[in-house]
UniProtKB/TrEMBL annotation:
This is DUF3231 family protein. It comes from Halalkalibacter oceani. It comes from the Bacteria. InterPro entries: DUF3231, Ferritin-like. Pfam families: DUF3231.
Amino acid sequence: MGRPKPITFKSHKMKPEEKLTSVEMGKLWATFMGNSMAKCILTYFLHHVEDKEIKALLQKALHLSEEFLGTIEDIFTKDEFPIPQGFSEKDINLGAPRLFQDEFYVHYLKYTSKAGMSIYNVAVPLVYRKDVKEFFTHCMKETMSLIDQTKEMLMKKGLIIKPPLIPTPEKVEFVHKDFLNGFFGHVRPMHALEIAHFYDNIENNVTSKALILAFAQVVKDEQIRKLFERGKTFTTTDIENYMQKLHDENLPSPAFLDHLVTTSAFSPFSDRLMLYHKMDMFMMKIRSFGNSVAVNGRRDIGQVYTKSLMKIYLFVEDATKIMIEKGWMEQPPQAVKRGK
């Protein structure tokens, strides 16, 4: 798998004086922060990876992160927008022992690629400046390609099962009044969209749980370690609840990945990077659950997601408070303060 050719975008605008909109600033800023973090993590992964195919996949992901960062820096520089600090070589320790087995890296790439897509697919319909629109379109295209290669690798190496199979409908039908039932009366089987989101949430959460397990194992700050332990505990409960819903329908679910975390107690990352990463991953869960609730019809399933959302929201809030207290949280672009 060769190094992808870098793509350059001219900062041409629809009008010479055209400025970045709030959406363009926000999405470029978020993309920069995420990819500066990804660059650190992927550099560490590449330091230990042994499987040649997985190494090539990691190299592609790292090259994309570096390319995305370079393009954003160019846009920001031309617009006299301050380059975010993000994360750097100061946030990684390449001398730390291996913390994950090679197989985990493939699951991680799929999870974080989906997180990137959640930024890009919201940005594309909302950005207007030509260079920014072309950039996010390119991000989507390249990230989709990376996801395809990651899925092929997962299947080739037998690291994941495909989503559950259900019967093809024999005819078009309309729902009955018991469609919303979940606790009482006749409870219908889950429909395809409900199954799809349970599968997706389990897949995301088993990767998230393995990562927070590893971070809790190596983090230096005791307050952050306790927060990670709390996140690990309720993530385990959530996964078990989602799995049970699929098992109740006699459907399979993705497996835990905890065995892919080593016993190393030496941290390869700064506490700041790990806390920001988990805060970001849990915020992605909130977005994912929002999509899940939107297509759900059964009250019992809605309750499962509601309970999860509250615990995740409180985790993100507490993580944010720690980031602020320690002076670690960069300020996203904001509107002008007017009046009192």
